[in-house]
Amino acid sequence: MKNIYLFELSDIFADQVYLPYSSGVVWSYLKTNSIIQKNYQLKDWFFVRDNASNIIKKIENPNILLFSSFMWNWNLNCEIAKTIKKQYPKCLIICGGQHQPLPDRNKNFFKQYPYIDVLIHHEGELTMEEILLKPDDLKNIKGLTLNIDNKEFVTPSRKRLDNIEDVPSPYLDGSFDWIVQKNKKENNYAFNATVESARGCPYSCSFCEIGEQYYQKIKTSYDKTKKEIEWIAKNKIEYITDANSNYGIMFTHDYDLAQYIVKIKEKYKYPHAYRVTWSKGQADKVLQIAKLFEEANIQKGMTIALQSMNPKVLEAIKRKNIDGGKLSEFIRMYEKENISSYVELIWGLPEETLESFINGVASIIEEGYHNYLDIHLMMLLPNAPISEIGYKERYGLKTLAVQPRFSHRSNPEQLVKDTVDFVIEANSFTNEDWIEGHQFRWIVIFGHYLGALQFIARGLNKIYNISYKEFYTKLLIEAKEQPKSYLGKEYWNIKNNLNIILKNKRHWGDVIEGAGDINWEVDEASAIRLTKNKDTFYKEIKDYLIQEYTFIDIKVVDELFKYQLSRLHNPFKKYPFTKKFKYNIHNVIENESKLEKKDTRLLFEGKNYNANLYQWAKETLWFGRRIARYKTRATVL
User: Fold this and answer.
1) Longest Cα–Cα distance in the chain
2) Rounded to an integer, what distance in angstroms lies between the CA atom of residue 508 and that of residue 520?
3) Which tens digits make up the pLDDT trace of 22-71?
4) Gap between the Cα atoms of 363 and 444, Å rounded
5) Using alpha carbons only, how large is the chain's radius of gyration in Å?
6) Which of 415, 417, 383, 402 is closest to 75 using CA atoms?
7) What integer best gives the mean pLDDT of the chain?
8) How far apart are CA 35 and CA 12, in angstroms?
9) How far is residue 341's CA from residue 361's CA, in Å, rounded to a whole number?
10) pLDDT tens, 421-452?
11) Phi, psi of 133 (to 5 degrees)
């Protein structure tokens, strides 16, 4: 019997890890072949990131190492592979997954990685089966790049599977039962699960690895997915991610699956959450599914994935957005149906400028969108169309390899050896612009979309016509120029840390005493620190506003700040409570009323956390940011 070792190493997030789905699907497929069963055995399956030395000492007499490779585990995979190849020269080292480069961009790959023998491209089920059946005839197996004397030998591309419905499942054939038992003995982490109700994407977004033509036809597996979801529920796994890239695009099937998930939760009380990537540009069509998930408390937050508001950028990345009028229409539609939504943008795309980025963010707020805006930093995934040499040269994309931008990771102080290429400069923006865009991203998310300044900004906008762009850009300048102020210290702490991160000498985000041993995103960290520094922060903000805008009424400003403090959820506050106001501030902000002096009494409601800062941060800023849990509920009495 030959010994196989599987690797799908993933980080630990607050004592949670993902079941190794990608390698699991391949292994389940291999197990169905009787010849493979007679000649190969799975000796171990590694799915949790650890020091390479701890993993290597568990490997004995290996014949094949099969790595599922992603940006977050590539360097660790290579460290293990290099050591094992030295110890066991005849061991076959195989890399599949999404990180190893495609044939059109892997020239001289084996000069850098001579210890790797085989690269599998695209779907790996059939390819890996043939490798095990014909290990001496690899040149005649499709879908590979082979190491022949440290030179690349590329075999013809393999066509995609005709049907993924009949591909065996690691949930259903006992493979993950073995993983569950192994976990109980060694670690006892909580599991997150992945399912794949559909594979493929009809779109060609240049920043996405499945934006290439190979994956453009969608293949589905709804019946199998239903059975997998029941297994997951029976095993009391709380969180499921559906790898379907466009949930809702196959509306009839997706709605039926959603109904099934709701029934499973009613029966087993699991899963607690089912995360999907909503179909692009069809937010109105998937509203029925979103309502179903929302009512069952399974999925919170409807994605409006815009990426950029700049038409030149959208053309460069082969992306088509909903127009501005439709965005406003969708926002109103979701609000009417009580469906939470969040918008996604990316900073650092080709053709974006600092000015167009800031204008785009401001335009979303001006549309009246105040729930949650997520702004990603652009990374170059190695197999995405944007990573082609000609594409990078055309747009002048320059990158830095730094730590993966993971938040909520356990043991964040430990710098991982894996790196990700972030776009930090292009023809359309300088590196200084990129850093300033990073800081603008922080002030907008912390200030507006985690609520620290949202109600002040909205009040000043409604009453004094101060634009959101002016409010946040001026405030950012103030923070930059006043380094001793509270906000200035936050600004410079984040910027200085960013400079260290760009040298790959620091993790992203901050670890905060009393809020767990995980790293929080910089905007979340600012929000957490604010809970204990509100008096200083709001006094400085009020003084700044009165000095900057001499025409505003101080009495109105006082009312705005009182309302702001009442609407921002506080882990140290007892809810519910009431407050009296001398103006109709609530109706001005929430109901488009004109300001008038009118005695008003408001009821503010929220969950009580009894000063448990970590639980509040976890539920409000981490799990609840996309549905605006940072806000209390306000009712006029």
Assistant:
1) 86
2) 8
3) 999 999 999 999 999 999 999 999 999 999 999 999 999 999 999 999 98
4) 12
5) 26
6) 417
7) 92
8) 36
9) 16
10) 999 999 999 999 999 999 999 999 999 999 99
11) -80, -30
DSSP, collapsed to helix, strand or coil, labels residue 122 as: coil
Distance CA 408, CA 623 (A): 11
The reported pTM is 0.90
CA distances, 100 to each of 46, 48, 177, 521 (Å): 19, 20, 29, 28
Amino acid at 603: L
User: Buried b vs exposed e over 262-301: b needs ≥16 C-beta within 10 Å?
Assistant: bebbeeeebbebbbbbbbbbebeebbebbbbbbebebbbb
Q: Token pair for residue 631?
A: 């806000």
User: What count of Cα atoms within 13 Å lies in the side-chain half-sphere of residue 357?
Assistant: 28
Terminal Cα-to-Cα distance of the chain (whole angstroms): 76
Let me know: does 561 contact 535? Beta carbons within 8 Å: no
- Give me the count of residues in the chain: 637
Contact predicate 101/382, CB 8 Å: yes
548 in Cβ contact with 466 (< 8 Å) = no
Contact in structure between 419 and 402 (CB atoms under 8 Å) = yes
Q: Which helix (H) or strand (E) holds 65?
A: strand 64-69
Q: What is d(CA 406, CA 596) in angstroms, rounded to the nearest whole number?
A: 47
CA distances from 609 to 434, 446, 573, 606, 620 (A): 38, 21, 8, 9, 11
Residues 354, 358, 364, 370, CA torsion sign: positive
339: tokens are: 């469906």
Rounded CA-CA distance 448/521 in Å is: 15
Phi and psi at residue 199, in whole multiples of 5°? Answer: -125, 130
Place of tokens 């109709």: 584
How far is it, in rounded angstroms, from Cα 415 to Cα 68?
21
The phi and psi torsions of 29 (rounded to 5 degrees) equal -65, -45
Single-letter code of the amino acid located at 198: A
Residues 6+ apart with CB under 8 A from 450: 523, 524, 526, 527, 621, 625, 630
Give me 383's structure tokens: 């197999």
Residue 93: name the closest of 81, 83, 103, 101 by CA.
81
